Amino acid sequence: MKTGRYGMLAFAFGSAAAMAANQGQLGSTSTADFGITAQGPVLPRQVQILNVVDMTLTNATRSEVDATYPGATMYFCAIDTYSGAMSITVTSANGASANPVSRWLLKTASNDLLDYTARLALASNNNIIGNTQSGNSFTATVTAGNTVSGAGACGGGNLKFHVNLDTAMPQTFPARNYIDTVTMVASPV
To answer: Which pLDDT score is estimated for 10?
Structure first.
């Protein structure tokens, strides 16, 4: 009886070593072997923030977490092609208020200021996963169970961004636009 090597199965993620098939020998029995390679994902892990919109605050608008003062809530989507965890760093272009330091600033072209608070929350249960801190940014971690793998799974959004003014808008509110630009940067964890 002729013997040979047994077949092998290899899973390679990255560059795979070349395997050579061994042909069986002519005889009363014959054994051949060959490799089977399953190469890793063709696409690298990717993340995306999707469905963000400009937010507008008026005396009539409120966020879902604080109905006391003017605010707004934006639903958006955090996508991870591997459905893994991600971190999202949220940054205010205008920076932090001097007092209290846990607030960000809306500004007019002539530098009139309004303080506001920002919060990042899960859409499923409204748990706050990040909020304004000292300085002009904060980082929140979105756990693997709270990301989606593609735009088709976003639905109404898996995250919420809440903003609230810290006081009511004054009755003599100047006829100016108070603005800030908020940037979100997502990275796989």
So the answer is: 42
